[in-house]
Amino acid sequence: MPPVVRFAPSPTGRIHIGNVRTALINFLFVTKDRGRFILRFDDTDVARSKQEYAEAIEEDLKWLGIAPDLIVHQSKRFPLYDAAAAKLRGVGRLYPCYETAEELERRRKRQQARGLPPIYDRAALTLTEADRAALEAAGRRPHWRFLLDHVVVHWDDLVRGASHIDCASLSDPVLVREDGTYLYTLPSVVDDLDLEISHIIRGEDHVTNTAVQIQLFEALGGANAAPVFGHHNLLTTASGEGLSKRSGALSIGTLREEGIEPLAVAACAVLTGTSDSVHPVQSLDELAADFDFSHVSRNQARFDPAELKTLSARTLHQMSFAAAAGRLALAGISGPNAEAFWFAVRGNLETFGDVAIWWAVVEGTIAPAIEDADFIAAARALLPAEPWNQTTWAEWTNLLKTQTNRKGRALYHPLRLALTGREQGPELAALLPLIGRAKAEARLSGRAA
């Protein structure tokens, strides 16, 4: 059966490059095997979840090239969670507890002082019906804990290999709050079962949740109901700081506004923290072929935003015309010269938006900069006749070299200034035929053209 995965963000802010590391790894995994990618919004926190963030997340994923096969919202699936909770209560795996946060904290401190692990002592299991009735009459409302089996849970992690957690070292997790709302664990497992998720691939910060979730999968779905798990290392800044949606640091929206290439974001997000070098890719299919879980490090995946900008430029420098053509057309760059133009300028681009600068040089009107009037006049007099091609620049400058005894910067720099109005730029051998003789002659005469 083809794999089914999910990316499950909370729509409480803009996602960042660390979030899309998880999204991309999941997407690349199913891309190889033609599986399904589900976008699940974990929006049970109605107060903090916003539709505008959900829409922004969809937009960010689309920009990266991720097209979900299905989009679901947990906020529309509460009847499933209610039924699951009722089932767990019915088999005695979900039990009511009445301790306040302050009471639980005092117990933890007493346990620590006695050298005991600070886990929940299951005192609520000893309450009688009368005890519970009295507590509720006094205004207490229960929260509900999942009764763990005190066994060692084993799983074969896609990244970490053979893994296990002794559930006797864990507190029975709270699944339902006093106000009846659900914590993350129950809705997540219910959705994974209902959507037939085959593989849960997520950050290593969720490792400690895995044993609990495996027991919950089995309690709701039967033996061997749990998916395959994989926990990758987390992406951090170069200094080792974690990323946060609240800070907005390195959000996908911000990177897009800065002109960073989506494939550079994808390559950086996925390959950082692996044994593979971070290198430009020309498609997500290429990146999928490169990615291997066995190459993922157990150390933090640190990256430098400055390196992302460099990678973005390198991605442009290798981009085919077929990949660029649609974007060029949107920028008003089309026609018979568009392909030659792309290959002429792509190696000098820092962001794709820079194409407008060079299109203006070859098709627009610029004010030339005349650095050496006598030399430029001599150059104008020696302009070759058309048609012009890739050899015209060499023929012209070789003739100038012979006539003026100039070479190096003294020969080339005044010509570049006059023809482009800029100190640096693409190879003039490629630009000159695009500029054409009429514009070149006008600019060498000092006229805007």
TrEMBL record:
Enzyme class: ligase
E.C. numbers: 6.1.1.17
Subcellular location(s) of the protein: Cytoplasm
Cross-referenced Pfam families: Anticodon_2 (PF19269), tRNA-synt_1c (PF00749)
UniProt binding sites for ATP: K245
PROSITE patterns according to UniProt: AA_TRNA_LIGASE_I
GO process annotations (BP): glutamyl-tRNA aminoacylation
InterPro entries given in the database record: aa-tRNA-synth_I_cd-bd, aa-tRNA-synth_I_codon-bd_sub2, aa-tRNA-synth_I_CS, aa_tRNA-synth_I_cd-bd_sf, Glu-tRNA-ligase_bac/mito, Glu/Gln-tRNA-synth, Glu/Gln-tRNA-synth_Ib_cat-dom, GluQ/Sye
Span of domain Aminoacyl-tRNA synthetase class I anticodon-binding: 377-445
Motif 'HIGH' region, residue range(s) on this chain: 9-19
One Gene Ontology CC term in the entry: cytosol
Signal peptide range in chain numbering: none
Residues in Glutamyl/glutaminyl-tRNA synthetase class Ib catalytic domain copies: 4-309
Annotated function: Catalyzes the attachment of glutamate to tRNA(Glu) in a two-step reaction: glutamate is first activated by ATP to form Glu-AMP and then transferred to the acceptor end of tRNA(Glu).
The protein's assembly and partners: Monomer.
Protein name as it appears in the record: Glutamate--tRNA ligase
Recorded name of the encoding gene: gltX
